[in-house]
Design brief:
It contains 2 helices and 45 strands.
């Protein structure tokens, strides 16, 4: 395949009215505020590091739990009990505000640390999130479940439950513990024989197992208390508060006297469905670096799309020790759900429960917990832009990922155009077939339009922290979708397209890197992608980069292959083409033969989705260990835009 044919295929496969005056204040969409309404139980864990350049030891930890009542219009009242490792117990009533978009994506005040909690609410009313833009130095995870009209009782808490549990109460990474817990409440207050299987940070990949007998539970006002006998050897002792979703399929909670958290699902019969869009949040602590004297704690929220045994996901991730703050992290995973709802990756054991909710528990030395809640598909009338349907055209990174200047986007919806029409030539026009895309009231260059899909480029001049995206078809405007803006949003094209599998990577002779024609250690290859942000010298939106001179990315771009840093010889626009970036990467001489993950980073984003086959005589599964996100720091605009 020639270079020009490949480039055109990548663009194609991936991917008139009076407008308001530019320069108006760009606000977050609050049309979804009604998705959070009524009284919820919640639990939040906050972890403050003692030194952001030290070993991961905690200086403070805060467990918060209680009720929060949302009015459906952007205000809430909270009754909170708070256990602070430094200050002891306190709490009481407090109030705050929240903003939720049509997609369920939004944020709410955090009265505990003063940081804003970002997250998502799904069609079941469950909210998951994290204060990833923390100015206070805390990592956190926040989960809230609505209290249903029929409150849970001893009799309704019955069946088989799988739980992901994480405990950082010791304050030191060496004693951090996470586990998968199995219990079977009988509807009469007995928990039966509770099985536990997990890992301590200091024990690496060595598994610890226990069986705990004599546990009981009791429900009052829709909330439960689990009680385990006192013991000097058991890992589950004393009380744990439990909050449960109205359908009984999801639980969340933790000890009132410790700094732990658990999420759990009721397991059903038959292989559960694991397909579609999911919202997620979690806590990770990478203990693989303990031999060097430290561990890496991160917390996150985000989304992923799953189907046919593969998923493409995004996490807005906060990690202080190596990254110094928050980044957008995109990735892909393969999975096979077993008949009991379980599956595993190299880093985590997962359980998909009744109702499709998934929980995850880390595999030492990669400790952590994760919860992923399914979201229903969005539909609308007229010219409709799916509020979750704006994705990176190369990687398919979900809508929770920030967008960047110059990024090629794919927009999904209905009645977006009357027919499929592709731009005839460059520069790409801002109107095709009477269809226009605006981002913050600026007309975006368009590559193609169709009734359900549009491909457009984010204008280079977009500014601020929030983008309002809209499609206008023959004078009729769609709903407006809001997203965050970043400096970069790297996404590597794949062959075939979709963000999963092998990257669109060429040898120096412009032939495609494949398993039959793998890249060689020491070779310089050309990687084709989008989302590297601003360029110099500046070019007109939608115009082709000149063929006789280089247009370079102004952001620092890095590369990593199979966990080994690689040299970036060039990062910028692909010469002679519009809407396409190119990174020339010199491969390290020490790479492991076989498939390796290729990661590309910008100052505020990191993608590790695609594979590159490497030539050699031996192979190792270690090559498929996904590189740890690590970027060159730059400030992200979320906090500046959303905080006073």
């Amino acid at each position: 395949m020639t270079f020009i044919k490949l480039a055109k295929s990548l663009l194609l496969l991936a991917a008139l009215s009076v407008l308001p005056a530019p320069g108006q204040t760009v606000a977050w969409d609050t049309s979804g505020n009604g998705q959070l309404k009524g009284t919820y139980y919640f639990r939040q864990m906050d972890y403050g590091l003692s030194n952001q350049a030290a070993d991961g030891t905690l200086a403070d930890a805060i467990a918060s739990y209680g009720t929060i009542t949302f009015d459906g219009a952007g205000k809430y009242s909270m009754s909170v009990t708070l256990l602070d490792a430094q200050l002891g117990f306190k709490g009481g009533p407090t109030t705050g505000t929240y903003s939720i978009a049509a997609s369920g994506y939004g944020f709410l005040d955090n009265p505990i640390t003063g940081d804003t909690i970002y997250g998502l609410v799904n069609s079941q009313g469950i909210f998951v999130g994290s204060a990833t833009e923390s100015a206070s130095g805390y990592n956190d995870m926040f989960v809230a479940v609505p209290i249903g009209p029929t409150k849970a009782t001893n009799a309704t808490f019955k069946g088989s439950y799988s739980i992901a549990f994480m405990d950082l109460s010791s304050g030191t990474p060496v004693k951090t513990f996470n586990a998968t817990v199995q219990m079977a409440p009988d509807g009469a207050g007995n928990l039966g024989s509770v099985g536990l299987s997990g890992y301590f940070g200091g024990n690496g990949s060595t598994k610890t197992t226990q069986t705990v007998a004599g546990g009981r539970y009791i429900f009052s006002n829709g909330a439960g208390v689990l009680t385990f006998p006192n013991s000097t050897t058991a890992l589950l002792v004393g009380q744990y508060y439990l909050y449960i979703s109205p359908d009984g399929n999801f639980i969340v909670g933790g000890s009132p006297n410790a700094f732990d958290m658990f999420v759990g699902v009721r397991t059903g019969t038959g292989t559960p469905s694991f397909d579609g869009l999911y919202y997620q949040a979690g806590i990770d602590q990478d203990e693989s670096t303990l031999s060097s004297g430290y561990a890496l704690l991160d917390t996150y929220f985000g989304a992923f799309s799953a189907g046919s045994g593969a998923s493409v996901g995004h996490q807005r991730l906060l990690e202080f020790l190596s990254n110094g703050g928050s980044i957008d992290y995109t990735y892909s995973e393969n999975y096979t759900v077993k008949s009991d709802g379980t599956y595993s990756t190299p880093y985590m054991n997962y359980v998909v429960g009744a109702g499709g909710i998934r929980i995850g528990s880390g595999i030492g030395p990669a400790l952590g917990i994760n919860v992923a809640i399914p979201q229903t598909k969005f539909t609308g009338t007229g010219v409709f832009l799916d509020p979750t349907g704006i994705v990176n055209a190369a990687s398919s990174a979900p809508f929770t990922s920030s967008i960047a200047p110059g990024e090629l986007l794919t927009l999904y919806g209905s009645n977006l155009a009357s027919a499929l029409t592709i731009a005839a030539d460059v520069p790409f026009p801002t109107t095709i077939g009477k269809v226009q895309v605006t981002i913050n009231n600026v007309a975006a260059p368009i590559y193609y339009v169709s009734p359900t899909q549009v491909s457009a480029i984010v204008p280079y001049g977009i500014t601020g922290g929030i983008a309002q995206v809209q499609v206008i078809n023959d004078g009729v405007a769609s709903n407006t979708v809001t997203m965050f803006i970043g400096a970069t949003a790297p996404g590597v094209f794949t062959v075939p397209p979709g963000g999963i599998g092998y990257g669109a990577i060429l040898h120096a002779d412009y032939t495609l890197v494949t398993t039959k024609s793998p890249a060689k250690p020491g070779e310089t290859v050309q990687v084709f992608l989008t989302g590297l942000g601003a360029v110099t010298p500046a070019i007109t939106d939608g115009a082709a980069a000149p063929s006789d001179s280089l247009v370079k990315a102004t952001n620092t771009i890095g590369a990593n292959i199979g966990g080994t840093s690689a040299t970036v010889a060039f990062a910028g626009l692909a010469p002679g083409l519009a809407g396409l970036y190119q990174v020339n990467v010199t491969l390290p001489a020490t790479l492991t033969a076989g498939d390796n993950y290729l990661a590309i980073s910008g100052p505020d984003a990191y993608t590790a989705e695609v594979l590159i086959p490497i030539a050699g005589t031996s192979s190792s599964s270690n090559a498929l260990a996904r590189p740890t996100p690590k970027v060159v720091r730059s400030a992200h605009p979320m906090r500046r835009v959303l905080k006073p």
